[in-house]
Amino acid sequence: MSRFRVARSVPLAPEEAWRRLTDWPAHGRRVPLTRTTVLTSGPSRAGTRFTARTGLGPLGFDDPMEVVRWEPPSGGRPGVCRLEKYGRLVRGWAEIEVASEAGGCRVLWTEELSVRGVPGVFDGALARVGRVVFGRALDGLLGRSSPSGRGPSRDGRSSNRLSS
Fold first, then answer.
1. Which of 35, 52, 87, 145 has the largest CB neighbor count within 10 A?
2. Whole-angstrom Cα distance, residue 24 to residue 51?
3. 3-state SS, residue 51
4. Mean pLDDT score across all residues of the chain
5. Cβ atoms of residues 119 and 54 within 8 Å
6. For residue 153, what pLDDT band results from cuts at 50, 70 and 90?
């Protein structure tokens, strides 16, 4: 299994960052060649299921997920959302944490995944790609960019603050 982590500090209230990060269809608009469809009705909560479909036309794969932990930030308490991935090709989990900090909040995205047919020797490369792809998605969802204005820093860990 490949594990990676992406951290961001942003000048948003934790509740606003949480709202943006748990807008599942918005994730699909931020990940190249991906569309996200929510399969359950009502607001997001534990039990919410959705599928991210990545590909071009009939060539692609589904990444079905379910929210298994849903604790929005409230009263100074950090928020945590945990997703379980149970697809045929991609399995694992992702956890989104949102905590208050001076001038805004800190977001931490941690993901552990395995891709069917990809040997463990490629875990490092998969983690690097994950940091880039999810770093850019987080930047877009949170309305931020790197100092160059083109996304996260090369290491995917830039935490420069930007004004809205």
1. 52
2. 9
3. strand
4. 88
5. no
6. very low
